[in-house]
TrEMBL record:
<dbReference type="GO" id="GO:0004497">
    <property type="term" value="F:monooxygenase activity"/>
</dbReference>
<keyword id="KW-0560">Oxidoreductase</keyword>
<dbReference type="InterPro" id="IPR050540">
    <property type="entry name" value="F-actin_Monoox_Mical"/>
</dbReference>
<keyword id="KW-0472">Membrane</keyword>
<keyword id="KW-0503">Monooxygenase</keyword>
<protein>
    <submittedName>
        <fullName>MICA1 monooxygenase</fullName>
    </submittedName>
</protein>
<dbReference type="Pfam" id="PF12130">
    <property type="entry name" value="bMERB_dom"/>
</dbReference>
<feature type="domain" description="BMERB">
    <location>
        <begin position="13"/>
        <end position="152"/>
    </location>
</feature>
<dbReference type="InterPro" id="IPR022735">
    <property type="entry name" value="bMERB_dom"/>
</dbReference>
Length: 152
């Protein structure tokens, strides 16, 4: 292996580890969101029961405000969960892109006169898959930007 190839392999391993750590952090946060979501739902059920049981006007106003707060919190958790799921998809596409890059490099470093028709076809298919993955990642990024702009 040349120094260049070793450097590429090392960078690929580092990127893979970085994606793995990010995926673990996302998974932990998704689990935390799920637990918090259940707690918020339970609190909401209790507040609704108290509202139905009848209470004074002041208590009713306070319970209604508390219920609205819980609904708002639930919505923010759902939004965060959705954002994390998009990040998970982006990580998968990033991993796929890295694998396709590696395969494509192995075909491209061969001399053209040594390539078989099957090699050329495989190289073309990998290139098409790579372009598809890049387009999907671009679409995800575009969706995230539109979402952030709409929230502002």
């Amino acid at each position: 292996y040349t120094t260049y190839e070793r450097t590429l392999a090392r960078r690929a391993r580092e990127a893979q580890m970085k994606r793995f750590c990010k995926a673990q952090a996302i998974q932990r946060r998704l689990e935390e969101i799920e637990v918090t979501f259940r707690e918020v739902e339970q609190q909401g059920i209790k507040v609704e029961k108290l509202l139905r049981d009848g209470s004074t006007a002041d208590e009713e106003t306070q319970l209604t405000n508390q219920l609205l707060y819980l609904v708002q919190k639930k919505n923010s958790l759902m939004t965060e969960e959705s954002d994390l799921m998009i990040e998970v998809r982006e990580l998968k596409l990033e991993e796929q892109q890295g694998q396709l890059d590696e395969k494509l490099r192995s075909y491209m470093k061969r001399e053209d006169n040594l390539k078989t028709p099957e090699d050329r076809k495989a190289e073309q298919e990998i290139l098409e898959q790579l372009l598809k993955v890049v387009d999907e990642r671009n679409l995800l990024i575009h969706m995230q930007e539109e979402r952030r702009l709409s929230e502002l």
